[in-house]
Amino acid sequence: MVTGFPRDGDRPSFGELEAWAGKGRVRRAAASEVANWRLSEADRAALTESGVPLFDELVHGESFRAMPGMYRLAYYEGTYVNWDYGVLPGSGEVRRWERDGTSQFVNSSVVLWLCSLQMVGGWFTRSTAIHHWDENGETEDQARAEIDDLLGRIGVADPAAIGDGSHETHFWPAVLDRWMY
User: Fold this and answer.
1) For the chain, how many structural domains are there in total?
2) For a Cys-Cys bond, which of 47, 61, 74, 85 suits 29, CB 3.0-4.6 Å?
3) Could you give the residue ranges of the DSSP H alpha helices within the chain?
4) Residue 3 above 50 pLDDT?
5) 52: domain range?
6) pLDDT beyond 60 at 5
């Protein structure tokens, strides 16, 4: 079972993120980079105090800059897919943007995005089942159970992040349901 977050709306600390992401793999925004962003104080503080963890499977780098229609937070550059994580001014909603301009809901706020990354990153670094899921049926079942538990925990923290479970419109169900394949 995944443990840790969220704790009554807390956000993960820099140290908690670094514990699983690795030393030097959590990047914080400078206060001046986000000072004029139309976000809640909690979301701006999350970016400057906690930071964004780099996670090879989901986040390759941070990029704190204002762009038309969003504030860019981070990006992923894979062999076949590339995307940006951005937050909508005013609402604080975090979305994943494809290079073609289409987007997918990720989390309701920056704080909840960091909590979700904390849960997923912590699970990924601790799980033995996910790294060997294809070795036998029992390990595959354990990995599937862990993923289902993780989706449930994200859903408790941020019900909108799971929504109706649609892979088309919601990032976490799409990513986690397909993690093993």
Assistant:
1) 1
2) 47
3) 14-21, 31-34, 41-45, 110-126, 137-157, 159-162, 171-177
4) no
5) 14-177
6) no
Domain assignment present for residue 117? The answer is yes
At 48, is the secondary structure helix, strand, or coil?
helix
Three-state DSSP at 10 gives coil
pLDDT in tens, 154-170: 999 999 999 999 999 99
CA 80 vs. chain centroid, Å, equals: 20
CA distance readout (Å), 93 to 111, 129, 135, 136, 145: 10, 32, 38, 39, 28
For residue 64, being part of any structural domain is answered with: yes
Asked if residue 1 belongs to a domain, the reply is: no
3-state secondary structure 144-158: HHHHHHHHHHHHHHC
Of the candidate ranges 51-65, 70-84, 126-140, the one whose mean pLDDT is the lowest: 126-140
